[in-house]
Design goal:
Layout (H helix, E strand, L loop, with lengths): L5 E2 L10 H8 L12 H14 L3 E5 L2 H12 L5 E5 L3 H4 L4 H6 L2 E5 L8 H7 L10 E7 L12 H13 L3 E6 L2 H8 L3 H5 L4 E5 L10 E5 L1 H13 L8 H13 L4 H16 L5 E2 L6 E5 L7 H10 L2 E2 L1 E4 L2 E5 L6 H17 L1
Parallel strand pairs: 1-11, 3-4, 3-5, 5-6, 6-7
Antiparallel strand pairs: 2-8, 7-8, 9-10, 10-13, 12-13
Bound molecules: pyridoxal-5'-phosphate.
């Protein structure tokens, strides 16, 4: 197999930097389950300051944050409203059904974003034979929507609907901070309409592991019970929490560089005939190959021969992701490789 010189596969590929590793090695630690890990406690404090929520809990993954939130907000038999492309529908091993006992009503949004009208239409009226709607979930940014940002105004309109119907609002904020940096809206402004939200540390923020779930004291108390029950409670988690602290202190503003590389990548590929690039708002760049005559699988393999890796999204669509381990020079090389592959085809 060829060595990969430019890896645009995912922002989950980021590796802890030297500074982050240093913070991890020198972390103060204790028993997290007893509330005695100073680094995990500090990380939760920073997350509450950032998101404007009362309390937070450190989790091993974003998936566990979503799962725990659905369990806390829903009873078995309840229904959750989410976009059809959402991670909770497509990428969590059916956890909503298996763990919360809830089903998800898929809304047909545009690039992962739906309207308050669509949310309201998806709510079941109260009737003995209807599932009880109990929660609305949105993804900021929308992953499978191409890194699209939910405008604050749309969020507030959806939250109004939720409030009128007594539904919980939950944000999958895997890439919330990308939305914050790209739109100049603070995380606490984006977070205010939500009962619960989380941020991923292991994507663009560059940590090896971890996510932080935030909400009211009561919500987090219940979430802690489920973290414990699901086996997510840790011991000296300060070693990894320290990476999270480092990320929140050093790696947020630099997400703007990833957005600039994503725009450069998109602009470069727009110049290649036959490639249609989706609108780029943050660090995800989706593009359609149909007019080149190549399938995504062919394209993927031919790019790999040139040392460039880009993910396959569907039969004719690709998904490229920029992050802190991808330089502008590498982005330019990727554009050249894409142009070569298309020219050859
Ligand atoms: C990555 C991702 C998750 C899951 O996060 P993990 O930390 O990988 O478990 C959830 N939602 C979205 C939108 C994601 O991109």
């Amino acid at each position: 197999m060829m060595t990969i010189e430019v890896d645009l596969h995912s922002d989950t590929q980021t590796r802890p930097s030297e500074g982050m590793r240093h913070a991890m090695v020198s972390a103060e630690v204790g028993d997290e389950q007893r509330g005695e890990d100073p680094s995990a406690n500090r990380l939760c404090e920073l997350a509450t300051e950032l998101t404007g929520k009362e309390a937070a809990v450190f989790m091993p993954s974003g998936t566990m944050c979503n799962q725990v939130a659905m369990i806390v907000h829903c009873q078995p038999g309840d229904e959750i409203i989410a976009d059809k492309t959402s991670h909770i529908i497509n990428s969590e091993s059916g956890g909503a059904a298996a763990l919360a006992g809830a089903q998800i009503r898929a809304v047909d949004g545009i690039r992962g974003v739906f309207t308050a009208e669509q949310a309201e239409e998806a709510i079941n009226s109260v009737k003995r034979n209807f599932p009880r709607t109990s929660m609305i979930e949105i993804e900021q940014t929308s992953n499978a929507g191409g890194g699209s940002i939910w405008p604050l105004e749309t969020i507030c309109e959806v939250a109004d609907v939720a409030k009128r119907h007594g539904l919980a609002m939950h944000m999958d904020g895997a890439r919330l901070l990308n939305a914050v940096v790209a739109s100049n809206v603070t995380a606490s402004d984006f977070g205010a309409p939500f009962d619960s939200l989380w941020i991923d540390l292991s994507k663009g923020l560059g940590c090896p592991v971890g996510a932080v779930l935030c909400g009211s004291k009561d919500f987090i108390e219940q979430a802690w019970g489920w973290k414990q029950r699901l086996g997510g409670a840790m011991r000296q988690s300060g070693v990894i929490a320290a990476a999270g602290i480092y990320a929140l202190e050093n790696n947020i503003q630099r997400l703007a560089e990833d957005h600039a590389s994503a725009r450069r990548l998109a602009e470069g590929m727009e110049g290649v005939s036959g490639i249609d690039v989706w609108p780029v708002e943050t660090n995800l760049v989706f593009f359609d190959l149909k007019k080149t005559g190549l399938t995504a699988q062919d394209f993927h393999e031919r790019l790999l021969e040139r040392g460039v890796r880009i993910g396959i999204k569907s039969k004719y669509e690709m998904r490229a992701v920029t992050h802190l381990d991808v330089s502008m020079d590498q982005v330019n090389r990727a554009v050249d490789a894409v142009a070569d592959v298309v020219a050859e085809a």
